[in-house]
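User: Let's play a game. I give you a shape written as tokens, and you guess the letters that built it. Ready? Here's round one.
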């Protein structure tokens, strides 16, 4: 079991921000990443659709013999986590809890804002989780639907990304917010433009490092840490060559083959 792989999935490229943190914290682990490029974006889709895609991916990963599945997507974590946990035999971890934990630890004044997809924001999952940890916090939520296509297009450094961030984040500049959750795994790719708009007094947090530490603690406690050399196998449900070209910018290195795996949904 120890040397069984860990499955990680997202609607597309965003989950690679989580994968990068996992590779850093757990270099001996064998990772399988699935980007659902045929169905991205998840953020504007219904709970039923996101659950259907997530289940199909989790079943595929389970067939690959994974010891753990990481839902490296806030939208799928917000909308489908409970259903996945009920249907899948291996443990399933999401990204909402670690992101909320980090924000509650980071804030000095209790004013937290969550940037996310429409699905994540409408689910209220972050608000619920933050208030569970500290009922005195004030939580503002802002859906930023155009951020995902900007990242999937490889446009994170274009002036359009800056203009889009300025427009979405305007309401935050007049508030007491001191901590902003990048509540979509695509958004850390836009960290530069987001922090330029918000300025140095606002802390940006995401789930990646906290989740990677949680995974490490969990595997350690279950005597399931891998030994030896880690590896990465990539799958995309459509256009694997395009995925490979763009993934290079997020992971900062050239990638091996990205396999095509169509989902039966
Ligand atoms: N990266 C995903 C998230 O964390 C999904 C973005 C999307 O597909 O809309 O929410």
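Assistant: Ready! My guess for every position:
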């Amino acid at each position: 079991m120890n040397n069984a792989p860990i499955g990680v999935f997202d609607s597309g490229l965003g989950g690679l921000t989580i994968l990068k943190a996992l590779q850093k914290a757990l270099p001996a682990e064998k990772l399988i990443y699935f980007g659902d490029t045929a169905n991205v974006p998840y953020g504007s889709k219904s709970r039923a659709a996101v659950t259907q895609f997530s289940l199909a991916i989790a079943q595929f990963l389970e067939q690959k013999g994974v010891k753990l599945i990481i839902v490296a997507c806030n939208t799928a974590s917000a909308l489908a986590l409970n259903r996945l946990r009920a249907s899948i035999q291996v443990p399933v971890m999401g990204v909402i809890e670690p992101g909320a934990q980090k924000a509650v630890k980071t804030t000095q004044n209790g004013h937290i804002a969550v940037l996310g997809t429409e699905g994540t924001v409408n689910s209220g999952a972050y608000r619920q989780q933050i208030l569970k940890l500290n009922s005195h916090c004030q939580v503002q939520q802002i859906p930023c639907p155009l951020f995902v296509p900007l990242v999937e297009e490889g446009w994170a450094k274009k002036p359009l990304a800056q203009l889009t961030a300025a427009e979405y984040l305007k309401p935050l500049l007049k508030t007491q917010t001191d901590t902003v959750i990048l509540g979509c795994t695509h958004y850390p790719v836009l960290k530069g433009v987001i922090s330029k708009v918000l300025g140095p007094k606002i802390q940006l947090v995401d789930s990646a490092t906290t989740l990677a530490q949680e995974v490490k603690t969990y595997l350690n406690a279950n005597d399931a840490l891998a030994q030896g050399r880690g590896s990465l196998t990539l799958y995309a449900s459509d256009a694997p060559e395009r995925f490979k070209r763009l993934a290079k910018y997020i992971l900062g290195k050239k990638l091996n083959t990205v396999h095509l795996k169509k989902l039966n949904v």
